[in-house]
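Task card 7
Instruction: Convert sequence to structure tokens.
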Amino acid sequence: MTLKEIAEDFLQLAAKGDSKKAFQLYTSSKLTHHNAYFAADPETLMLAMEESAKENPERTFEIQRTLVDRNLVATHSFIKQNQEDKGMALVHIFRFEGDKIVEMWDIGQPVPTETINENGMF
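Output:
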């Protein structure tokens, strides 16, 4: 698999509630993440992703675009927790060593109720 395919599969698995499988398949034991809402250890993040998927069974997750630069992969995605949710734009950045994710960042921006920009967020 390419790094792009690994990053995308990792996110798809996590969004569906298979975060344990995603972490087992694709992350290094040295994984560092930078999500400010969770403790620094990878297991806490994995369990939070799993719990979020359980709490939101109607979740939809669509990767809009993926960029690759050597050992870095960035995705721009659209997630909705349920049908009524306006959704959120997400950016994930992954740093790889070989074919394993060793570092990751995530950034989210809620879709506002009213937007000034007629181009939209996606």
